Amino acid sequence: MGAQIRELRRRIKSAGAIKKITKAQELIATSRIAKAQARVVAARPYATEITNVLTALADDAALDHPLLVERPEPKRAGVLIVSSDRASVADTTPTCFVLPRSCTRCCVSRARPRWCTSWAGRR
Question: Annotated Gene Ontology MF terms (predicted)?
Fold first, then answer.
């Protein structure tokens, strides 16, 4: 009987420890989400302005350049990368240069992955 009580106490103590660890992980995740959301909000004005600038450049009627003409059957696609001079995360800069290669392939094959925001195959 005493062994069973000790076993139950040990299991209750173990469950309490797991509960504390889970709560700590939850608090950490909440903090990280809040920080990420703050970074997104802080980056919105920059993203809006860079979109406006690039749209104005592409839509300018005075620009009659062969690279800005939409082709019916594109064989190649050009990708303009606008990046910061420093990466806030170590993975940011390499990602900027890896994704466009895949995006270029999808633009030519007209198969759009969900992360590709500039897609030549759209109609």
Answer: proton-transporting ATP synthase activity, rotational mechanism
Domain boundaries, the chain: 1-66, 70-123
User: Could you tell me if 108 and 92 are in contact, meaning their C-beta atoms sit under 8 angstroms apart?
Assistant: no
Q: What is the DSSP letter of 114?
A: T
Read out DSSP for the chain?
-HHHHHHHHHHHHHHHHHHHHHHHHHHHHHHHHHHHHHHHHHHHHHHHHHHHHHHHHHH-TT---GGGSPPSS-S---------SS-SSTTHHHHHHHHHHHHHHHHHHT---TT--S-TT--
Q: Quick one: tokens of 114? A: 């969900």
pLDDT tens per residue, range 93-122: 566 666 655 555 555 455 555 555 554 444
Tens of pLDDT, residue by residue over 36-72, are: 999 889 888 888 888 888 787 777 656 667 776 777 8
